[in-house]
Design brief:
The structure is a single chain. The protein is of the alpha/beta class and 946 residues long. The protein has 30 helices and 36 strands. A 7-stranded mixed beta sheet has the order 13-12-27-26-25-14-15, covered by helices on one side. Strands 31-35-32-34-33-36 form a 6-stranded mixed beta barrel. The protein is globular and about 90 Å long. The structure holds iron/sulfur cluster (3 copies) and FE2/S2 (inorganic) cluster.
């Protein structure tokens, strides 16, 4: 086996470059201009020894191990930094080179501890490998004199250790932090022998480091090393899978010892991440084996009873008999199901199938209801498809990037890093956000415009941007004439040109200076390829759908849809939000976004499912809860969601749950919703099952079982058990059979199968006869709906207004280290960065209320009241407060209201009128909830029960 990694030979050149032929060790090789000699040598199977080069980083030329001889040139140039030339004659192996390389290695080793046998990197250390490759047999210099062997370790980061005594100062870590991650946390301090890696003169924890681990991955020695490897040793085998956190969908190699994860290494061939990751995917996997994992099914007849552990058979039988009892008593529509964006496509598909075919109604909804349902509606209405238009790599072709209502460096970090790379290359940036996100100003990146709009004014802002384009003659006329519906275009142009949409007219609404808005519009329209990336700051509003259509309008009118570097791109929150929507989780749609009232579509499902299906949409989540409070909805099967924490107006949510007679929760932890449940089915983590996730690029990637399900069954198997107990047979032997059924019933998935994904690595739908390898960019030759449709997007202010009683506006978001309701990340070391939700408040508003940094404050709205600690910061504008929603103890959603998007019921999380006051006690809700939680999470001790 070669000790030099096959692909570690510097950045590959562009495939379209001109070719040159040269000779290496007597063999002719033809490679593109710009290729390094090292890579050219690799093309013919010659692996030049190296230490500082790696394919994820630009060549650096510091270690001097890759020396070669070139005819006609003096000296021994470094092959990693020397570009090929036509006719060049290179020698990679000569006596002189061998001696020089041994000398270089000897110097490294003379200042390196000789503890290979006990070193955690033993067997996975490039220094060790290279010492063997260059044939170093003795070290003449010894340890006398100056050395770095006593340098102390930095163990401040919870996930990795920095042991400078093993550092060879190759700068790979520094370059990884700059080039791949874009954080610039590391430097090389000092010169010559005294040079050393430094996280900004402090320790890693106190530095700017965001714990992405890119430096650890790049380090060729054991200097930067995962603590899990130090503790457990090197892995024995690995399994390629997909991250279970955000919608970037990073590919990972789960490195295993038996059934234990040793480390997660971002997969170099992962098309979404190209070998990079964030702190969550790489390090925060400890929750999968956390001691609080629930591994036994449980039942109880009342939520005030303690839980009783039972067999799977008893739990499933009880759930099925309760659901049938309820339907017999209250009617077929009295029960429903909720699918999860944290589960696989196959699992989600089965839950909606169970509801439609087993329950006999369409009462199925998904957590996308509360995040990206407006994306589906808005993009479908304008373009014809409920999904983003690009792949992530497309951002590298963007000249102007408009980020609106999204915080990619926290919520979609790997994509955030890619975007920052493009920005460092010179792309221009417009950020529209009420808050000063990191992207506005970060090392080597500065937004051209930060449109710091008031929460709730997205539509006014987007209309004003489009108004400038239309009224200043910046329309892509030929594109629009060819690709958009003429009547609708004319109608919309007349609408948007109205002076009421001008930046000046909406300045009071948006709070954005008209001149900035005009300049940003001109930049977007004329700066080259312009791409829009957006998040929940757009969708979670009463006009979420209108804003999505507003972005689609803006992209179409400037010709920015249908090619690389452009498009309208939702940054999906959870890993499988796209998939859960694709899989027919909505009450009105089958897989592939086809309405249940479509007879032909319904008949195709009836034929395969062998059952008669309803043609009327079922209940959405808020409707289910309303009906529960009204007494007509009595049973709910929830797979992998925690609506008692994640959904708005928790008081209403919990009232609905408490009014039901049978709530079945399937989860890996006893989550907040389980307090209101009667049946608990233990879930399986992403490491315990096979299946697929679909990321924000419509990319379907494999999730592979790395260990057996800890609670016996994977989630798809548990759903099958429930369905069979209800009398609707499901007998899949493997999730691949479920995907085969999905492909059979869904035109956009017709070409998808596990075998095909294995073959291609991943597939972006649509994948069918027309696009057998999938579709990276949508709407290339025309819109999916035929002609693009401009939608009228009248700005209608939300009814949620600040008042004398509630004078501030609360908006919510995420933080890098935590994820969604925090159920996973709160059970990892990530809590060292964020152990509680904080309320960001502007210094002006804080001073007015006598609030200092760290004070406990009450946060109250007309929906409820909670309390949390204040963080005084000018990241938020005066009049606006901000918090995250990762912690059930602070429960930000006690405060959020029941206002929602007009089209989809997506809650208006981003605008809540609140009052903030200094307090010294928990809110009444928190006290009541703590007591309820204590009562409802009791489990009968099996020993005591006997
Ligand atoms: S972990 Fe990431 S952010 Fe931190 S120093 Fe390493 S590369 Fe930089
Ligand atoms: S810490 Fe590792 S990657 Fe960084 S300079 Fe030292 S040996 Fe190279
Ligand atoms: S960016 Fe998202 S998908 Fe990638 S590792 Fe981080 S959490 Fe996982
Ligand atoms: S690998 Fe070329 S100088 Fe280090």
């Amino acid at each position: 086996m070669s000790l030099i990694h096959e692909t570690d030979f510097g950045t590959p050149p562009s495939p379209s470059a001109q070719m040159v032929t040269l000779e290496i060790d007597g063999m002719a090789v033809t490679v593109p201009v710009g290729t390094s000699v090292m890579r050219a040598a690799a093309e013919i199977g010659t692996k030049v020894p190296k230490l500082c080069a790696t394919d994820s980083l630009e060549p650096f030329g510091s270690c001097r191990l890759c020396l070669v001889e070139i005819d006609g040139r003096r000296g021994t140039p470094a092959s990693c930094t020397t570009p090929v030339e036509a006719g060049m004659k290179v020698k990679t192996q000569t006596e002189r080179l061998a001696k020089l390389r041994r000398g270089v290695m000897e110097l490294y080793i003379s200042d390196h501890p000789l503890d290979c046998l006990t070193c955690a990197a033993n067997g996975d250390c490039e220094l060790q490998d290279m010492a063997g490759v260059v044939g170093l047999r003795e070290v003449r210099y010894g340890y006398e004199g100056h050395n770095h062997l006593d340098a102390g370790k930095d163990t401040s980061n919870p996930y990795f250790t920095f042991d400078p005594s093993k550092c060879i100062v190759c700068s790979r870590c520094v370059r990884a932090c700059e080039e791949v991650q874009g954080t610039f946390a590391l430097t090389i301090d000092g010169r010559g022998f005294a040079s050393a890696v430094s996280p900004g003169g402090t320790d890693f924890f106190a530095s700017e480091c965001v714990s992405c681990g890119a430096c650890v991955q790049a380090c060729p020695t054991a200097t930067l090393m995962e603590n899990s490897v130090i503790e457990a040793g090197q892995a024995e085998h690995s399994v390629i899978t997909t991250c279970a956190y955000c919608g970037v969908g990073c590919g990972f190699k789960a490195e295993m010892r038996g059934t234990e994860v040793v480390r997660m290494v971002p997969w170099k061939d992962g098309a979404a991440n190209h070998g990079h990751s964030c702190v969550k995917g790489r390090f925060a996997w400890g929750y999968t084996t956390h001691k609080e994992r629930m591994l036994k099914p449980m039942i109880r007849s009342k939520i005030s009873d303690p839980w009783r552990e039972v067999s799977w058979e008893e739990a499933i039988g009880y759930a099925a008999s309760e659901f049938r009892r309820i339907q017999a008593k209250y009617g077929r529509d009295s029960i429903g199901g909720i699918t999860s964006s944290r589960c696989t496509n196959e699992e989600t598909y089965l839950v909606q199938k169970l509801v439609r075919a087993g329950f006999g109604n369409n009462n199925v909804d998904t957590c996308a209801r509360v995040c990206h349902s407006p994306t589906g509606y808005g993009l479908s209405a304008t373009f014809g498809t409920s999904a983003g238009t690009q792949d992530f790599d497309s951002v590298m072709q963007a000249d102007v990037i408009l980020v609106i209502g999204a915080n990619p460096t926290d919520a979609h970090p790997v994509f955030g890093s890619r975007m920052k790379k493009r920005l460092r290359e010179g792309a221009r940036l417009i950020v529209a956000d009420p808050r000063r996100t990191d992207l506005v100003r970060t090392p080597h990146v500065q937004a051209d415009y930060h449109l710091q709009l008031k929460p709730g004014s997205n539509v006014a802002l987007l209309n004003a941007l489009a108004h400038v384009v239309v009224t200043e003659g910046l329309v892509a006329e030929a594109y629009v004439a060819e690709r958009c519906e003429p009547m609708e275009t004319a109608r919309w142009r007349a609408f948007i040109a109205d002076p009421r949409h001008s930046p000046e007219a909406v300045e009071a609404i948006t709070g954005v200076p008209a001149a900035d808005l005009r300049a940003a519009a001109r930049l977007y329209a004329t700066g080259g390829n312009a791409a829009i990336y957006y998040g929940l700051g757009v969708t979670e509003h009463s006009q979420g759908t209108t804003a999505v259509m507003g972005m689609a309008n803006l992209a179409m009118i400037t010709g920015n849809v249908g090619h690389e570097g452009a498009g309208v791109n939702p940054l999906r929150g959870q890993n499988n939000v796209q998939g859960s929507c694709d899989m027919g989780s909505f009450p009105h749609e089958f897989t592939g976004y086809r309405h249940v009232s479509n007879d032909a579509v319904r008949e195709s499902f009836e034929e395969v499912w062998n059952v008669t299906l309803r043609g009327e949409p079922g209940l959405r989540i808020p409707n289910m809860l309303d009906a529960a409070v009204d007494g007509t909805f009595k049973g709910l099967y929830i797979q992998g969601e925690d609506i008692a924490q994640s959904d708005p107006d928790i008081t209403h949510v919990t009232a609905g749950l408490a009014a039901m007679e049978c709530v079945v929760i399937q989860d890996i932890f006893l989550n907040e919703t389980a307090s209101f449940a009667h049946v608990f089915l233990p879930g399986s983590s992403f490491l315990e099952k096979d299946g697929t996730f679909t990321n924000a690029e419509r990319r379907i990637s494999m999730v592979r079982k790395a260990m057996p399900p800890m609670a016996v069954y994977a989630d798809w198997q548990a759903t099958m058990l429930l369905s069979n107990a209800l009398g609707y047979p499901m007998n899949y032997r493997h999730p691949s059979e479920i995907m085969d059924e999905i492909a059979r019933l869904t035109p956009t998935f017709a070409g998808v199968s596990f075998a095909r994904i294995e073959e291609l690595g991943s597939i972006q739908w649509p994948c069918n006869d027309k696009a057998p390898n999938g579709t990276p960019t949508m709407h290339v030759d025309g819109f999916v709906r035929g002609k693009g449709k401009f939608a009228i997007t009248e700005f209608v202010p939300t009814e949620e207004r600040s008042t004398a009683r509630y004078p501030l506006i609360l908006t919510t978001g995420r933080i890098l280290s935590q994820y969604n309701v925090g159920a996973q990340t709160r059970r990892t070391e990530n809590v060292v960065w964020h152990e509680e939700d904080l309320l960001e408040i502007h210094p002006f508003d804080a001073e007015y209320r006598g609030i200092a940094d760290g004070d406990w404050v009450s946060l109250a709205s007309r929906a409820g009241e909670t309390s949390l600690r204040a963080k005084v910061t000018d990241r938020v504008q005066a009049g606006v407060v901000y918090t995250t929603f990762h912690n059930p103890e602070t429960a930000a959603n006690v405060v959020t209201t029941d206002f929602s998007d007009w089209a989809t019921n997506c809650p208006e999380y981003k605008v809540t009128a609140v009052q903030v006051r200094l307090t010294n006690h928990r809110s009444g809700w928190q006290d009541r909830y703590a007591a309820l939680r204590e009562e409802t999470t009791r489990i009968v001790d099996p020993a005591a029960a006997e």
